[in-house]
Design brief:
The complex is a heterodimer of chains A (about 240) and B (about 200).
Chain A: H1 9-22, H2 28-40, H3 42-61, H4 71-81, H5 89-115, H6 127-130, E1 135-141, H7 148-151, E2 161-166, E3 169-173, H8 181-185, E4 192-201, E5 206-217
Parallel strand pairs in A: 3-5
Antiparallel strand pairs in A: 1-2, 1-4, 2-3, 4-5
Chain B: H1 6-15, H2 19-30, H3 33-49, H4 60-79, H5 88-104, H6 112-119, H7 122-131, H8 134-145, H9 150-157, H10 161-185
Helix pairs in contact in B: 2-3, 2-4, 3-4, 4-9, 5-10, 6-10, 7-10, 8-10, 9-10
The chains are: A alpha+beta (about 240), B mainly alpha (about 200).
């Protein structure tokens, strides 16, 4: 316990947790510990009261700003005007394959490069060069980073594989459009490193895989690099 | 207006009710109403194009927020505009000092809640929010305006819950510090409780 201006170690810990205590987002044990401390520490209890006031003021002042009433009809009209081509899966693929490859990829791949490990930075822009883009990523369950309940059966064939760009950054593979379904669906491929190329859809954190090379598991049980093996499943081969 | 396909109608029914929430986030990202409206429209059209990839039963609002934010980031990166760096460590320490001084200070003074509610203008709130880097601002809006849980925010932004917690912690402190500073500038808060702006060099 402490007086104001003389915080104890407990007070410092509570100070770090107080926002999450307010949001009711602490695990039960931590919440109980904070509650116990607050019950016994007038300084922290008063601090909580001040933070409660500030939170209340923030919530009030950060109220939603409404759009102009014309926005919704405008969006609706744009939806109706959108091309019926996109309703057809075959044409949808054609549209993505052509338009997205040429129009989107220049930006997307350069954006991807910024998110990738150094070895993957290639910065291609021309359509012809996009297919040559190669980055090295790890295959991982595509539920990585999601709630544990969604990851529990990740060794079973319930989840497709995803790509781990770096710790905390994951991309999904577009399975239905992929030319390499076996890579996307085989749980045994998880943990392998791949050199990949394809179309990156940033809005969906997704990669449409068009070419890849399996570099194998990063290390075998003896710590030796596994020799890379080529998978002949590249689009058009 | 021409009638749309069943798919268009389904999308309109599930997605358009979130237009206001999308606009609010877009406004705080772009800080311009016209840009925000354009961003919302672009994001919704993208969402419609990729509606097949939406899993029914999952949080469509989170899915739409993700598309909106990624669309914003793509534009933002294309514009090569960098946000002002914020010295969070400095801001946090001064914020803690202000809170301590408030606790020790004049018991008859106006409460922090009333200070902010009565003496800070809407434009100043928006300005304070706009000073916070985008990744912090987005988490603050999602948590305090949209009442999203940490887990929902983490899933929406594809970041760990711990990152959500730290961004919210820092974002809230920066925001509250700025608002208390606006109040101070009007002479409402004692001079010794002043919170410097985030104009010091980033650490």
């Amino acid at each position: 316990m402490s007086t104001p201006g003389q915080p104890s170690a407990d007070c410092s810990a509570v100070s770090l947790q107080i926002f999450h205590y307010q949001a009711d987002e602490l695990p039960p044990a931590e919440r109980r510990a904070v509650r116990t401390h607050l019950d016994m520490c007038p300084a922290c209890s008063r601090r909580l009261a001040v933070e409660d006031e500030l939170l209340c003021a923030l919530r009030t002042r950060l109220r939603r700003r409404d759009p102009a009433p014309e926005l919704r009809p405008r969006v609706l009209a744009a939806l109706w005007e959108s091309s019926p081509v996109r309703r057809s899966r075959g044409l949808w693929r054609a549209w993505l394959g052509a338009a997205a490859l040429c129009a989107t990829l220049g930006v997307a791949i350069s954006g991807m490069a910024g998110a990738l490990p150094e070895e993957g930075r290639v910065g291609r822009t021309a359509c012809q060069q996009v297919r040559e883009v190669a980055v090295v990523v790890d295959l991982i369950c595509d539920r990585a980073g999601k709630p544990m309940r969604q990851q529990r059966s990740c060794r079973e064939q319930l989840h497709v594989n995803g790509l781990r760009l770096s710790e905390g950054q994951y991309w999904s593979l577009l399975v239905d459009a992929s030319n390499a379904r076996e890579v996307a669906l085989d749980p045994e491929m998880r943990g392998h490193r791949l050199r990949v190329g394809g179309e990156l859809l940033r809005e969906f954190n997704s990669l449409r895989l068009t070419q890849f090379e399996d570099l194998g598991l990063e290390e075998d049980a003896d710590g030796l690099a596994v020799e890379a093996r080529r998978i002949d499943a590249v689009h058009g081969r | 207006m021409a009638s749309g396909s069943a798919r268009q109608r389904e999308f309109a029914e599930v997605a358009l009710p979130h237009t206001d929430a999308l606009f609010n986030l877009a406004l705080h990202l772009t800080r311009d109403r016209r840009d925000a409206e354009d961003l919302v429209q672009e994001a919704l059209l993208k969402a419609f194009r990729f509606f097949d990839s939406y899993e029914p039963g999952t949080q469509i609002r989170a899915w739409l927020f993700r598309i909106l934010r990624n669309t914003f980031i793509n534009r933002y990166r294309a514009a090569k505009v960098r946000p002002q760096e914020v010295n969070f460590a400095h801001l946090e320490s001064t914020y803690d000092r202000v809170i301590d001084e408030t606790l020790l200070g004049d018991r008859g003074a106006m409460s922090p809640e009333r200070l902010i509610l009565d003496h800070v203008l809407d434009e100043e709130v928006d300005d304070a929010l706009g000073r916070i880097p985008e990744e912090y601002r987005t988490v603050v809006i999602m948590a305090l305006v949209e009442d999203m849980t940490y887990r929902e925010i983490a899933d929406t932004l594809s970041i760990p819950v711990g990152t959500v917690m730290s961004r919210l912690h820092r974002g809230r402190k920066a925001l509250q510090a700025s608002l208390l500073d606006y109040a101070r500038r009007r002479g409402i808060v004692h001079r010794e409780s002043s919170v410097p702006n985030d104009e010091e060099p980033a650490s």
